[in-house]
């Protein structure tokens, strides 16, 4: 089974702190994604990566950056956390992005910014 | 920009009743549509994936239909059980996934 893991289930940070969210997948998938999920808004795509050191902006990239130094690891960075970044963050991966494949999701990180 | 809407936002039914969950999308130029399940505080689990060329897909008690021309999909869950209580999300793939806000289902024992 594909496994996608996220470094923390729950995280509490203060406004202005730099925050790292880590995601690791064990199936050698090429494509990885970061979403945030908020009540009533569904999942919104922040950034995605289709290869090592490659990244593309999603729908809401402002206030975030990403890093993909190794194929299995995709990090989301909040350079200066703000209260409006309090959310559930979900990481996902997929082999090639082909139209026959499904994305596999991690368990999520619930981030609270005070 | 693709917009995905799920109605209703919440649903409560007695055990044994059939569930009907609706999803609509604005741009019919899609590769596929997926239904996911999410339990509270957890990640998403894929239930069914329907290719744009397909009309329906079945897995056990679950059946999903797709009418691409009208921008609609319906997820049917037969003979609901308390274990079916969760949030169900629809996602449309038109090179990236666009999600609806979900329908939260409660099945009462």
Quick structural summary:
The complex is a heterodimer of chains A (114) and B (109). By secondary structure, chain A is an all-beta fold.
Structure description:
The complex is a heterodimer of chains A (114) and B (109). Helix content of chain A is 0%, strand content 52%. Chain A has 114 residues and is mainly beta. In chain A, a hairpin with a 2-residue loop joins strand 7 (65-70) and strand 8. The mean pLDDT of chain A is 91. Helices cover 0% and strands 59% of the residues of chain B. Chain B has 109 residues and is mainly beta. Chain B is globular and about 40 Å long. Chain B has strands at residues 4-7, 10-14, 19-25, 32-38, 44-51, 56-59, 62-67, 72-77, 86-93, 97-99, 103-108. Chain B starts with a strand and ends with a strand. The interface between A and B is medium-sized, with 24 and 25 residues.
Strand content of chain A: over 45%
Query: How would you state the average pLDDT of chain A, rounded?
Result: 91
For the record, give the distance between the C-alpha atoms at the N and C termini of chain A, rounded to a whole number: 37 Å
Number of continuous helical runs of chain A: 0
Rg on CA atoms of chain A, Å: 13 Å
Number of helices of chain B: 0
The biggest sheet of chain B, with number of strands, parallel, antiparallel or mixed sense and barrel status, is: 6 strands, mixed
Helix content bin of chain B: under 10%
What would the principal axes of the Cα set say about the shape of chain B? globular
Tell me about the largest β-sheet of chain A.
7 strands, mixed
Helix content of chain A: under 10%
Oligomer: heterodimer
Secondary structure category of chain A: mainly beta
Largest interface: A-B, 24 and 25 residues
Unreliable stretches of chain A (pLDDT < 50, length at least 5) are none
Net shape of chain A = globular
Kindly state the number of beta strands of chain B: 11
Measured distance between first and last alpha carbons of chain B: 41 Å
Q: Quote the average pLDDT of chain B.
A: 94
Structural class of chain B: mainly beta
């Amino acid at each position: 089974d594909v496994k996608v893991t996220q470094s923390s289930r729950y995280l509490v940070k203060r406004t202005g702190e730099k925050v790292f969210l880590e995601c690791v997948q064990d199936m050698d998938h090429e494509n990885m994604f970061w979403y945030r999920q908020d009540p009533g808004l569904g999942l919104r795509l922040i950034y995605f990566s289709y290869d090592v050191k490659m990244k593309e902006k999603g729908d809401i990239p402002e206030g975030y950056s990403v890093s993909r130094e190794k194929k299995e690891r995709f990090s989301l960075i909040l350079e200066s956390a703000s209260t409006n970044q309090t959310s559930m963050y979900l990481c996902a991966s997929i082999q090639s992005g082909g139209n026959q494949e499904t994305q596999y999701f991690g368990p999520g990180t619930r981030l609270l910014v005070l | 920009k693709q917009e995905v809407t799920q109605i209703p936002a919440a649903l409560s039914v007695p055990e044994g009743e059939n569930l009907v969950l609706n999803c609509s999308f604005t741009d019919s130029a899609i590769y596929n549509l997926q239904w996911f399940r999410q339990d509270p505080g957890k990640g998403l689990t894929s239930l069914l994936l329907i290719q744009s060329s397909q009309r329906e897909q079945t897995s056990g008690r679950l059946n999903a239909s797709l009418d691409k021309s009208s921008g609609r999909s319906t997820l049917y869950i037969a003979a609901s059980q308390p274990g079916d209580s969760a949030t169900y999300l629809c996602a449309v793939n038109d090179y990236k996934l666009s999600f609806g806000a979900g329908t939260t289902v409660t099945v009462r024992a």
